[in-house]
Amino acid sequence: AMSAFLPASVYLNAGIGLLREDDWESHRELCFDLHNLCAEVEYVLGQFDRVWSFLNKAIQRGRTVQEKLRAYDTSIRAFGSQSKTEDMFGTAIMVLYHLGEPVPLVVTQIEVQRGLAETQALLSTKSEDELLNLGTMIDDDKREAMRFFNLFSLCAYVEKPKYFPIIACRMLQLSLSYGVCRESAIAFAAYGLLLCGLTGDTAKAYRLGKIALSLQEKFNTTECLPPVLLAV
C-alpha cells in the first residue's frame, strides 16, 4: 500500500502546479482539497518540510476556521509525529477555542472536580437504555470539537495527563447534551477509565465501558477502535 503514495504525491503535486491564482476564488474547494491531500500524502511519506509547505498555504488561504480544520487536523498529527508536544497542544487548544470549546491553560484540581460533578449530574438524568439510544449529533461545530478533543486526548493521556480528565468530561458532556458521534465511544470509555482511577467506582466504569463498545459497534470506525479497547 505504501508504494501507492509515491505516485499519488507526483500526481497531486502536478495538480497543484496547474492551479492559477484566481482558482482560489473560482475553484476554492478544489484548491483546498489538493493542498490538504498533498500534505496528508507527504505526511505518510515522512516528508515533513513538504507537509508544512502545503498546510501553511491552506491555512493562510482559509477565511474561516471551518476552511482550516482539515489542515489543522493534519498539523496536530504531524506535530505529534515529530514529538513537538507543545506545538501540538497549542494548535488543539486554539482550534477548540474557535469551535466554542475553550480549554483552560492551567488545569487545577478544582476544575477537575467540577468537570466530574457536572458530568455525573448529566449522567444521572439518563437511564442505561436512554444512554444506549441517544440521538445522533448534528451540530457541525460540536462534531468537529469531538474530533479535535479526540486528537488532543490521545497524546494528553501520555504527555500531559492533567488535561485528560478535562477532555474526557467535556467529550462525554457534549455527547449527552448534543447526541452521539463516532468519537462518543471514546468519550464513554475514557470517562469510565477516569472513574476507575479517580473514584474507584468500577461498577459504573464497567457499565460505561459496555456503552462505549455498543457505540463503537454502531459507528464501526476503525480509527476509534484502538483507544476504545485500550480504555475498556
From TrEMBL:
InterPro entries: Hybrid_Histidine_Kinase. PANTHER family: HYBRID SIGNAL TRANSDUCTION HISTIDINE KINASE G. This is Anaphase-promoting complex subunit 5. It comes from Odontella aurita. The lineage of its organism: Eukaryota, Sar, Stramenopiles, Ochrophyta, Bacillariophyta.
